[in-house]
Amino acid sequence: MTGLESQALGRLRIAHRRQSDELIDAFRSDLDPDRLVRGLCAVTDATVRELWSGTGLARGALIAAVGGYGRGEIFPHSDVDLLILTAAAPDPAQRAAIEAFVGGCWDAGLAIGHSVRTLDECVHEAAADITVQTSVLEARLLAGSRTLFDRMTQSLAAQRDPGAFFRAKRAEMRQRHVKYEDTPYSLEPNTKESPGGLRDLHVVMWAARAAGFGRRWNDLALRGLATVEEARALARSERILKRMRACLHIVAGRREDRLVFDLQAQVAAMHNLDRGDARRASEDLMTRYFRAAKQVTQLNAILLQNLDAALFPQVGGAPERIDPEFQSRRGLLDAIDPDLFQRDPSAILRAFLVVEQHPDLQGMTAPTLRAIWHARLRIDAAFRRDPANRALFLAILQQPRGVTRALRRMNQWSVLGRYLPAFRRIVGRMQHDLFHVYTVDQHILMVVRNLRRFALDEHVHEYPFCSQLMAAFPKRWLLYLAALFHDIAKGRGGDHSKLGRGDAARFCRLHGLTAEDASLVEFLVEQHLTMSSVAQKQDLSDPEVVMRFARLVGTEERLVALYLLTVADVRGTSPKVWNAWKGKLLQDLFEMTRRALEGEAPEAGSRVDALRREARKTLNLYALSEERYEQFWSRLDVTYFLRNDANDVAWHTRVLHSRVDTTVPVVRARLAPIGEGFQVVVYQPDQPDLFARICGYFDSKNLSVLDARIHTTRHGYALDSFLIVDPVDRASHYRDILTLVEAELAERLARGTPLAPPVLGRSSRRSRNFPIEPRVELRPDERGRHHLLSVTANDRTGLLYSIARVLSEHGVELSTARITTLGERVEDVFLVQGSELASPKAVLRLENEILAAVQP
């Protein structure tokens, strides 16, 4: 580089820095984020063009802005994403010119991220990688060949599948939400990536742009995908989030998108919120953020639903009527009368209850959500005094499924806070401590979620002891109610446990709970911190400590309830707070206290003990002594017994106890004890593709798997059981094929033949006329050791094998499986593990392949 060139680069660098500083100084005064990002973009454009002009590549190449820069948004410390496109592979001279240009960008002070591609390479990369496709979607020509740029955009547009693009971006968003715990209310949220952040807005606009629906919020309103009010709300929320992100970059002096504690006060000061109290300023700032993020999550849900309906119009079939007020439309609850909630506000609570009561409903339609949002102000003091509404609220808590989702949706749409004014006061409230990572309302809902997981079979593997206790607890909804109130008085001053007990007592009295139930709820709210404190801070080897705690608790029911609430509470503070040590301390205190309450009597029979006793009764009928099968039972853990009833345990024991260490597959079948079909149990040393091989055999025989329970023993053997039906010839020949299945399946497993391609059967007529949108979700479990794979799809022969085969191809091992068939719908949950699952891209690829495999 000559001295003159060096001087020119120096002047360019100084000019770029000076103009950028002037824009930042102006932003400090007016806090106009749009003026800032557009101004920084224009300054960067001018710098890039001047650098490019000296390359000599103008005819045969181009330079384009992509990503956020292509969108016209540059934040103070954002990367400058550039695409250098050439008509053909660059020759040595062109490569040298490109290298000089890239070096000049860095010398001029631009933090660039760049790629160099030919037109063919660009099209190929976009087809193979959704990230590249998204980046070039917003490409903007800066300099060079307009003809080449137009060829690129035309080729990419011709290649793009708007529907597939939409599904891929929605899957990416879901995966990103999982990473951030599915909540916008983290105490240190990422203004770009967290749920409710800028990226959620980008997803909507990317999908709309790919489909040709527009490039701005007003365009979506003109297309009927959003209302004018929603378009304005989106623009307002986007402006708030942009302002906060810009402030973060400025106060951090680097690219920083997280509203971390260290920077909140400084960002608040830039917002003129500093009144001499840094904590209060931080709270005011975060309240603004959480309100904007909440609105983004609301509108994101509505707009994605509308985009889905526009891209995938429902074919055939009218909405299915549920009751006089509601119908099912595309698997979503829809109010038949648009004015229902204004005319009858009680229908707001009924809507959430109906979704809980119908497993096939995945949510509510956009018009219904809008109507609930506009009618939320009808939930007033008179509404809360209405006995019918009080009964509806209790019914929502008492449902066997969907409680967590209902409460979260009620909070998201401001229904929960309207019904419980005390809860409204803690929505978005910060918790300034070293262990809570959520706002108070989100922590409370996380605790409810944790309690619910103790009651669900698919989560038994996470905390088997808690699941065992929850299975025997008579009124689980009282625990959920206590969880709702345990931190509801945070931020009022004074002891929040005692204040919360007062709130809970009033609720119980007004809602007609019995004195016994109310007493339990009040006790749990007031003492929700006690068990953790005793376990971690007092000497459990001191009998008086245990006796004192036992006297406080009083009964075993209260002990069980407090233990479950405590575990759920600790786990709901932060993913990093819970550990095995704390778990052992709590369980030790629980066991010691239970023995003290029983007067040191032998421990009362647990569910597992009761199940074993029942199984023994059956085994005695076959003259099997306990010694003969104790070795077999010693290889089975609590999870196995919780997932099987006594009848199945006795059958497995009877046919497998003499083959504990067999080296060859053992297959046994019997007629199903209840209902039609037959059961098959497979026992052999475990192997990665075993589940797929078993499913492949049933698929080859045109047999449908209604239920599968996959278990790995303590010594590494697979103990898999299946409930099988023949969808064509039901019940007439099951007894005749039991021996055939036993012999053929055992022989096939021993032979180890390669997996055959799946042969999918036809969906039922009902499924074809009322198809559901398949859903595939893969996320880490609570302990981070496994992943939970959830698949929802229309049922048909070969579906399970298709899923199992994809898992096998990716080397993903199956630990347990829960197959649930609801009429024409399957909801399968698999516990899987594998090294490939450590890569987010691999997880996304696996999700997409399974989604393709289950498409109708």
TrEMBL record:
Residues 679-759, 788-856 form the ACT domain. It comes from the Bacteria. Uridylyltransferase (UTase) activity is inhibited by glutamine, while glutamine activates uridylyl-removing (UR) activity. One of its GO terms (molecular function) is phosphoric diester hydrolase activity. It catalyses: [protein-PII]-L-tyrosine + UTP = [protein-PII]-uridylyl-L-tyrosine + diphosphate; [protein-PII]-uridylyl-L-tyrosine + H2O = [protein-PII]-L-tyrosine + UMP + H(+). Its cofactor is Mg(2+). Keywords: Hydrolase, Magnesium, Multifunctional enzyme, Nucleotidyltransferase, Repeat, Transferase. Residues 1-321 are annotated as: Uridylyltransferase. One of its GO terms (biological process) is regulation of nitrogen utilization. It holds the Pfam family GlnD_UR_UTase. Its EC number is 2.7.7.59, 3.1.4.-. Residues 440-562 form the HD domain. NCBIfam families: PRK03059.1, UTase_glnD. Belongs to the GlnD family. Has four distinct domains: an N-terminal nucleotidyltransferase (NT) domain responsible for UTase activity, a central HD domain that encodes UR activity, and two C-terminal ACT domains that seem to have a role in glutamine sensing. Modifies, by uridylylation and deuridylylation, the PII regulatory proteins (GlnB and homologs), in response to the nitrogen status of the cell that GlnD senses through the glutamine level. Under low glutamine levels, catalyzes the conversion of the PII proteins and UTP to PII-UMP and PPi, while under higher glutamine levels, GlnD hydrolyzes PII-UMP to PII and UMP (deuridylylation). Thus, controls uridylylation state and activity of the PII proteins, and plays an important role in the regulation of nitrogen metabolism. This is Bifunctional uridylyltransferase/uridylyl-removing enzyme. It comes from Quisquiliibacterium transsilvanicum.
